[in-house]
Amino acid sequence: MTFDDGPSESTPRILEILARRGVAATFFPCGANVERLPAIARAAAEAGHEFGNHGYNHPLCCFRSPRFIEADIARAQQVILERTGTRPAWFRAPYGVRWFGMRRAQRRLGLRGVMWSAMGYDWKLRAAAIVERLAERVSNGAILCLHDGRELQSEPDIGSTIEAVRLLVPLLLERGYKLETVSQLLCPTT
Ligand SMILES: [Zn+2]
Q1: Distance between CA 151 and CA 129 in Å, rounded?
Q2: CA quadruple 98, 69, 52, 37: dihedral positive or negative?
Q3: Who surrounds ion ligand 1 at CB < 5 A?
Q4: Which end of the chain is more exposed for a tag (fewer CB within 10 A), N or C?
C-alpha cells in the first residue's frame, strides 16, 4: 500500500489505522508538505513506514527542463532526509508523468522509479468505490496507490481515503495478503 502527496494534517489518522493492524506502508510525500508538517513525516518514519520521493512542489514535468526536474527531485530528497532521517530509494513521478531528464536525475540521486499496479482514484471516488476498485485489482505483488494529501493543499479533506484504508486493510488481511513496503516487496533480500 502506498500513499502519495502527503503528509497532510490527517495523515496521523491513517498512521493509527496502519499501527492498529501492524501494517507498514510506503509514503511518497511532496517535499513542500514534509517541510510544512515535519513532525507528522517524522512520526510516520519512526513508525517504520518507508519514504519515497514524489518531488518537492509536485510539478507536472512535461516540457520542463532536465535542470528544473533534477532540482525539484533533489530538493525533495534533501528535505525528506533532513526531516525524517531516511533517504528515499524510490521515486514516483508526480501525476505519473515522466519526461526527458528524469531518468538521469533519478540515477544521480540514487533513486529508482516505481509506479503502481492499481490506482485508488481516492481524490474523487467515495470510500466504497475506492475499496471495490482496489479489492478487484489486488493480487500478489500489487502496488496500490492512495493519497494521504492532495498535492500541496493544506488541510485537505482526505476523508474518503481514510475510510477506504479503514475498510481495505482488514479486508486484505482477511484474504491472506501481507502488506509490505515497496523495498520489502521489490528487494526482499535487502
Ligand atoms: Zn501526486
Answers
A1: 21
A2: negative
A3: 4-5, 94
A4: C
pTM across the whole model = 0.97
Q: How far is the CA of 5 from the centre of ligand 1 (A)?
A: 5
Model pLDDT for residues 42-66, shown as the tens digit of each residue: 999 999 999 999 999 999 998 999 9
- Tens digit of pLDDT for each residue in 18-32? 999 999 999 999 999
How far is the centre of ligand 1, averaged over its atoms, from the C-alpha of 187 (Å)? Answer: 24
User: How big is the chain by its Cα radius of gyration, in Å?
Assistant: 15
Dihedral of alpha carbons 115, 151, 149, 112, sign: positive
Ligand 1 center to 174 CA (angstroms) = 29
CB 123 within 8 A of CB 150: yes
